[in-house]
# Entry
Amino acid sequence: MRCPLSGTRFLKLTGQDHSAATAGWCDYNRAMADVSAARAPEFSLAALFAALDLERQSRGLTWAAVVREMNGGGVHAGRQMSASTVTATRVSRISEADGVLQMLRWLRRSLESFMQPVAPPGANHPGYLLPSPPPGLVLRFDTRKLHAALDAYRAAHGLTWTSLGHKRGMAPASLTRLSQGGRTAFPTVTRLTQLLNRPAADFVHACPS
# Structure
């Protein structure tokens, strides 16, 4: 199996030398080959909820207090996240992506650290953490940028949008619609960032709430 990440890219994220970087991703790919027949890596909303609840309890917070912190203490005048959106991750199979970004920011955890059954190398490295938005702004997925990266990948591998969608278990229209901007969802978006072998943090930007 081809190692998906160049040594140069991995060196930037982990500080390892080229051979160690390549070996790390080769080991990860071999692990993925072992589990691929059973289940491909997916972002786990249940694991996210467990981490949120553990942090909440350790700080003695109510869910309402957690959400106030996620919403910037009320400084964001636009759309606010609700406690029900956060607690729904306990049982939901899908969740609006921009809300999950705020949860990850609150935990100071990377998206990749919640990939199961095996997280990729470097998932806990600072290079994978989401950036801090300027005051008054929130992080959202830059779906146009994600679409451009997917289009480049598709062209480089001689794929149609239909075959690319099949590769990720997604309808082609759901991929081409990314070019219009707008929002996406978890765990769908992680299937795309994992395909590109790039951190999700590469595809976020700061926007008005």
